[in-house]
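User: For a benchmark we're assembling, each entry needs the component sequences followed by a predicted structure for the full assembly. Here are entry 17's components. Please fill in the structure.
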Amino acid sequence: MTRTSAEKELELPPGTAPVVILVEPQLAENIGMTARAMANFGLSELRLVNPKNGWPKKGVREAASGATHVLDDAHIFASVEEAIADLHCVFATTARERGQMKRVFAPDEAMADLVGREGQRCGILFGRERVGLTNDEVSLADAIITFPVSPDFPSLNLAQAVLLVGYEWRKASGRARLPFSGEMLSPPATREAMVALFTNLEAALDAAGFYPPEKRGGITRNMRDMLHRMALNEQDVRTFQGALRAISRAMKS
Amino acid sequence: MTRTSAEKELELPPGTAPVVILVEPQLAENIGMTARAMANFGLSELRLVNPKNGWPKKGVREAASGATHVLDDAHIFASVEEAIADLHCVFATTARERGQMKRVFAPDEAMADLVGREGQRCGILFGRERVGLTNDEVSLADAIITFPVSPDFPSLNLAQAVLLVGYEWRKASGRARLPFSGEMLSPPATREAMVALFTNLEAALDAAGFYPPEKRGGITRNMRDMLHRMALNEQDVRTFQGALRAISRAMKS
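Assistant: Structure for entry 17:
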């Protein structure tokens, strides 16, 4: 996708987005997909606490599908305490109740809180693939984030959890612009153009012998309403009128 | 996670959630992760149009991490037209402008529209991993969904796109309950309990010789405010009072 300079300006400098902290992640696939999910929503700072079986991992760059800048800038830490030391605010993600008297937020609520903390650097802790964060690690966080998953199948993939947080951060921070809009390429049709279309359509259907005479009024009003529902623009009416002219000519020949 | 019957009742029957339609998906990993993402948010109906290199694919069940019911119930179609035939409303996901005069929605807007279509069955088209949907396939849809991704890294993984749509459907349909809440396990402390805590804390600090006499008033008021910011509950106050008693005893001995 090519980008205009206006779009580029909309991206704010790093440091404003939250830091993503993966605690003892195991699978290269998940770390790579985490980097990709972060880049999708403008997050860039990744920290890894004791990645299992060492770092860098084989296959992690392939899984990142081009988001290698996130991996290249990732920092490794020996403990959660060290990984969060410079932050002002930390959220811990967990799927289970911990019996800790802690605030619990959905991702959108948490990111609204985070965005409101002007001048603070915030981080989000994500636990091990199978067992999540320990209770002691959760106790280092200001508050908990949990996801509104189906109770029938609550097991969320690590990179998917990161994606949802990144997506909600982008929305909460006012950056959630769509890459293109559905603006009509032509202005709405004037009512004069619509009445001319009705006239030509009804003349073509008269010529084709479509209307039972006693029902012409009702059918005509219903068809006009179908056309109203289409919310036609000027270009649409020109296309429609052209098709009617071609059909009318063909019927006469 | 064990589920209570109350939680089970919150899940509505299938048919109300949108159908997910993958058009010529290639990678088993993506199809399996799609099934998992669907199950996470209560979607269950998966349709595949001409999966590349046949079906079932090797490795797809492993990638679904237990969401095999979605894969087992998946239906295969030879064309998009057949895959959407019984639906009343179809959205096409795309990352690029198509020059089609079509409504363009963010995932949350699209799911709000979809949830409002009572009694209609709706489906969402997701294109091929590399090239997405063709323009002709997009033209079969009522409207477009696109994602508010960073212009610096817009390439969203297929299963991640499905995840975001499923997540927003769950929110829009009022099912986005968290698996647990942050309700305090103990009622808020009464102001009588707080004043008793202030008294004991200040007595302990007096006994320890902490306060410069001329600053006692100001420091005391600041510390009382710190305690107010903690929004303590009854259990918190009991824990705090116990700690103060232990410290006071230790200072006297």
